[in-house]
Design brief:
The chain is α+β, with helices and mostly antiparallel strands. A hairpin with a 2-residue loop joins strand 11 and strand 12.
Length: 400
Amino acid sequence: MKIKQAPLSKFVVINPEVITQGYPYQTIEYIDISSVGSGQLVEQPEEILLKDAPSRAKRIVRNKDIILATVRPNLRSFLFIKNPNNNTIVSTGFAVLRAKETANSRFIYYCIIDDKFTGYLTNNTKGTSYPAVDSDIVLRGEIPDFDLKKQQYISDILSTYDDLIDTNRRRIQLLEESARLLFREWFVYFRFPGHEIETQNLASVRLVDGVPEGWNKEKINKLVAFKRGVEPGSDNYLETYESGSFPFFRVSDLITRSPSIFVDEQYAKSALLKKSDIVVSLDGSVGIVSMGLEGCYSTGIRKLVIKDKKINRAYLYFLMKSHYVQGVINAYAKGTTIQHAGEAIKHMNPTLPPQNLMDLFDEIVSPALNEILILLEQNQKLAQARDLLLPRLMSGAIEV
């Protein structure tokens, strides 16, 4: 059965509100292109003074708006806005779509994240170094012309998957935050188990270079190998999975964990990741630390391979996220548009706690890290199930 199509303009208005001279807020929460992945924020909105905001910080968003990146639409940057603050502003690099009264906003969201709509946008970009689509192109894109009741029914089915994914994301954030706070308490503030006994007898407490006696400074590159990824070249990228290919993670994929391209085994075999591996970006957007990835990874990413038992996985993961290591990475990053921070590795000289304390941290935190990996895998399967169902619902292959 052929489904009747209609242009998106029938269902939405585009870019309905912008900052004008009478805008009432002196500060804004700004969402830039780099802050948005495929259906999720990869960075929290940046709070900045309006007078210091970049010129592209113009578009006002409201609850249930949809933002869609119009630059390089093949990268699939989009987000369904939920309960934003009144001063939330997005870049002009996004088209802001607001559903009309005759349309269901979640249904519209699922239409524009469908691969079919992405393909339409990609095929209609203008420019080579900065391929983009304009508002007219977006509004001319066709989506199924369903009545409101059917839109609601489809959005209810698909949003069930996204609601479960969001719940798992919140659980992941809580697990990681509790472990991060424990790391800070023990290894930054030195309030580790037994410190109370030490401080009761001040004569027995001895600080050496600002840290407890027995803690030693180590060169991290003697304990951990930073294995660089590969770059097969864009001509060898595969847009869809083929037998023997692997997902290819670039720096932009580290937070969303959803790569959009694949590479053949011949390019991937020297740089493969398993989900328990820890990685860090040292080119492009530097300092992103991630795990839960399975596939091949690019040259902008380093896989951390522990080569000395003086350090364990749980401690290493939160050490790489610590203010100290992030500060070293930022201090030695070179470049403006694209940064390079490989030089930082040899300057990472953290002070490590005694082995028994690090092992205790690992014993406490590893179950949380393992649960995070399980939740990430659940989310991957939920997203795959949703993405398989979405085009079938839109095409009428599944009757609703």
